[in-house]
Amino acid sequence: MTATDFPATAPARSVRTFHPRRGRMTARQTAALERLWPVHGLDVPDVPGTPVDPARLFPRRAPLVLEIGSGMGDTTAAMAAADPDRDYLAVEVHTPGIANLLDLVERHGLGNVRVARGDALDLVSGLAEASLDAVHVFFPDPWPKSRHHKRRIIQPAHVALLRSRLVPGGTLHCATDWAEYADAMRETLDADPGLVNAHDGFAPRPAHRPVTKFERRALTAGRPVTDLIYRRR
Ligand SMILES: C[S@@+](CC[C@H](N)C(=O)[O-])C[C@H]1O[C@@H](n2cnc3c(N)ncnc32)[C@H](O)[C@@H]1O
């Protein structure tokens, strides 16, 4: 698939956790997408649950971190650069963000990053059980209206799916700047019988999660950021 083949939105499905949105790409992002997608990219299969073998994406076997909704990719790139012994698979639906991450991958010479385009939930359903060392869900769309809560990525059925793909002891790390969502996340994660909170309540802000533009904007707007870190039993 080339950059110009990318559809603006994913095909319709009843409930999606993301806003369909278009976005302009810079010339640099377009070039990065054209050049790097064939090497570092993966299309999430159209049929949810189609097996995806991450071992085929990376030239080595290493613990794998899945970053859901990587946005512009700054966090993925920074964390992967600081953590060379693990591989990072970012999944995003927003093409300019995917292209930006590919550009960062090239600029920083990151051999341990691959980028999937499509719905993270479809991708995860195709991964084998216990195939992930960690799942990162940083600043997921908060869907603040009650009638939209069904779109939230952190909800019981999704959490059960994510947990099943973690190795025992693997971590599910979430961060949000939306206080009510943070409480809802905690309630949902606490209720999952296969997860245990790695901290007593909300986690102290981990130094290894870089501060992104997104987080700075939230802090400037007076929305404190909350981390939640759980381990699979
Ligand atoms: C609010 S942004 C946060 C981006 C990034 N994590 C950050 O911290 O800057 C949420 C992102 O999640 C993506 N997203 C939401 N649901 C998704 C899904 N099911 N699969 C892939 N990406 C998703 C959206 O496209 C959006 O880019």
State the gist of this model:
The chain has 233 residues and is α/β, with parallel strands linked by helices. It has seven helices and eight strands. The site of S-adenosylmethionine (SAM) has 22 residues, from strand 3 and helix 4.
Describe this structure in words.
The chain is an alpha/beta fold. The protein has a single domain (23-232), classed as Rossmann fold, CATH 3.40.50.150. It contains seven helices and eight strands. An eight-stranded mixed sheet has the order 1-4-3-2-5-6-8-7, with helices on both faces. α1 crosses α3. The longest helix has 14 residues, at 27-40. It starts with 26 loop residues before the first helix and ends with a strand. Residues 7-12 have low confidence and may be disordered. Bound molecules: S-adenosylmethionine. S-adenosyl-L-methionine binds at residues 67, 92, 119, 141. Its EC number is 2.1.1.33.
List keywords for this structure.
single chain; 233 residues; alpha/beta; Rossmann fold; eight-stranded mixed beta sheet; 7 helices; 8 strands; 31% helix; binds S-adenosylmethionine
